Amino acid sequence: MEIPTLLLPPPQKIETISIPLPTADVPAYIPMVVPPSDLEAPDGVQAEAKDEPEATGIRKVDIPFTDLKMPVPEN
Prior knowledge:
The structure is a single chain. This protein is largely without helices or strands. The chain has no helices and two strands. The protein has a two-stranded antiparallel sheet. The chain is elongated. It starts with 58 loop residues before the first strand and ends with a strand. The mean pLDDT is 84.
């Protein structure tokens, strides 16, 4: 009795896949510089003069929780 044989083709070479490492965009920020609460001008330095608007006779009302001032008509 003869044993049957199979002729198989030569195996194909499979190359390994190169998977790159994952990268991420790291968030960046500019640090905010906060002066200390007890900051004072050195001796001999004068503060700048602030220009205050002239009084026009129109009353302004402060709006709570905002930095807005709204003009109020005269009575």
